[in-house]
Structures are given as C-alpha cells and as structure tokens.
Design brief:
By secondary structure, this protein is of the alpha+beta class. 15% of the residues lie in helices and 32% in strands. The chain has one domain: Ribonuclease Z/Hydroxyacylglutathione hydrolase-like (Metallo-beta-lactamase, Chain A). An eight-stranded mixed β-sheet has the order 1-2-5-6-7-8-10-9, with helices on one face. A two-stranded antiparallel sheet has the order 3-4.
Length: 177
C-alpha cells in the first residue's frame, strides 16, 4: 500500500532519495467537497467530507526550508512551526473570508519567523482580499520589508479556455542589525 508515502499531521516522510523531508502540519479550515453523485441520487449529501486541512514544511537538503500554510486561519501553534523548522520561505493565504485576513497573515509570518513571505489565495474571486497592500503594510510593521508585487496574467489551464489574473507579491524580513 505504500505506507512510506502516507502521512498524517505531525508526521514526516523522506522523499527524493533523501533530498527532501516533508512534514505535515496543522491547518484550521473546513474541508467539504462538492459531491458529484448528489445531483443523481437524492440520498447523497451535496457536500462530502474532504479530510483534515493541513499545511506542509519541505526541508530541502542544502537548500531552503519552505512552509506552505494551506488554507488556514491563524493559530498560536504556528510559533512551534517556526521554532521547529525555521522556514526560509512561507506561502501564506491572505485572502480572508475563508482563511486568514491580511492582518492575521502578517502575524502568522512573524510567528513562523520566516525570512521571505509569498502571499497566496487572494484576488481570485470578489469575496477575497483583492490585493496585497494591507498585508504588506502590516508585514512592514512586524519586522518585514516590502518586496515587489506585480499583476500577472496566468496562462489558461489545460482544457479550460480561460485565463485568470492574479497578484504576485514577495515580502522579505529585514536583516537583523
């Protein structure tokens, strides 16, 4: 069954011939998925349980340590992720509504003690935060300095003939003096 590649929150696996250690971390988020059988069968629920929300830390030998928060709310144990793994890079959702609002994402960046923040999950549909301005301002107030942010056009996904627009932004930690 491949138990060497199965994992749960709190576990770690080693992949790529020992070059990468992957740790599964907690995330706080719902996990309902649209049930494709619901429209054909009245007894089927419209939403099905999708499993536990999770984040991941990738520790690359002789390379960076990357934390991907997944879709999550801020939680105090993000500090433990920072203590345990000291990530160089963090991908944090800042879109709000379904996950962290920009102010809490800035707090999460400080909690995980990350050197470089890449905000994600924003500007993809109207209910989410549409840009990184507030996040960048809050991050600056939390010992980060602004990096570059651009509006980028993404190429169409295979099989979907439409393109999506999104923002890209990187925020770096100020060098300690």
């Amino acid at each position: 069954m491949g138990f060497d590649t199965l994992m749960n929150i709190g576990g770690e696996i080693t992949i790529a011939n020992g070059e990468v250690v992957v740790a599964m971390t907690p995330a706080l988020h719902s996990s309902g998925l649209g049930n494709p059988f619901a429209k054909d069968r009245e007894e089927e629920p419209e939403l099905a349980a999708g499993g536990n929300a999770a984040g991941f830390v990738l520790q690359i030998r002789n390379g960076p340590t990357i934390y991907h928060s997944g879709d999550t709310a801020y939680f105090k144990d993000m500090e433990i992720i920072g203590e345990q793994y000291a990530p160089d890079v963090a991908l944090l959702n800042i879109g709000g509504h379904f996950g962290m609002e920009p102010a809490m994402a800035a707090r999460a960046a400080a909690s995980v003690r990350v050197k470089l923040v890449i905000p994600m999950h924003f500007g993809t549909f109207p209910v989410l935060t549409q840009d990184t301005t507030f996040f960048r301002r809050r991050s600056r107030n939390r010992a980060f300095r602004s990096g570059s942010c651009t509006q980028a056009k993404r190429s169409p996904s295979k099989g979907k003939g439409s393109s999506r627009r999104g923002n890209r932004c990187v925020v770096r930690r100020r060098a300690d003096r």
